[in-house]
Specification:
The protein is an all-alpha fold. The chain is built from 7 helices and no strands. α4 packs antiparallel against α5 and α4 packs across α6. The longest helix is centred in the middle third of the chain and has 35 residues. The radius of gyration is 23 Å and the shape is elongated. The N and C termini lie far apart (84 Å).
Length: 157
């Protein structure tokens, strides 16, 4: 006769959130839709909602850094300008436009992190181009409006 294990299986120990994230999302949506609020995994639901806001903010910063880095490369390496650089600038401007359209409250966040993003973009541009960090201005030479303007590209320095 085989001995039975006294160790519970994974589904008996772990909450659905940790077993199957996608199923947890579907279950949570259904519970909300059905008004069964008492059955919600509130702790994980709150964490997920907070994380969603953080992801949106990280997306703003990431897209902004890419734009600023490429604007610097475009300005300081005119001999290497390419359609690829212009496309990258346009693509990330479009991404920011969509983020701001869907969440207008992200625009003030964009403004508040602009200089910090420029500082990181400046360092990345120096590393990628091999140019001296000191060549790039310590403060952004681009305004907030220029950075988002789909028609703006910097001239020679």
């Amino acid at each position: 006769m085989t001995a039975t294990s006294s160790t519970p299986n994974q589904s008996q120990v772990l909450p659905l959130y940790e077993q199957d994230y996608c199923r947890w999302l579907e279950t949570t949506a259904n519970l909300l839709r059905e008004g069964k609020l008492q059955k919600l995994d509130v702790v994980h639901l709150v964490e997920e909602i907070e994380d969603m806001g953080k992801r949106e903010k990280r997306s703003v910063e990431s897209n902004l850094e890419v734009i600023l880095m490429h604007l610097l490369k475009y300005q300081y390496q005119p001999e290497l300008r390419s359609n690829s650089w212009r496309f990258t600038i346009l693509e990330h401007r479009d991404r920011l436009e969509k983020l701001f359209r869907d969440s207008p409250s992200l625009k003030p966040f964009f403004e508040s992190v602009f200089e910090a993003c420029y500082t990181r973009a400046r360092k990345k541009a120096a590393v990628e181009t091999g140019l001296s960090l000191e060549l790039f201005p310590a403060s952004s030479p681009f305004t907030l409006d220029e950075t988002l303007n789909p028609d703006f590209l910097p001239e020679f320095y």
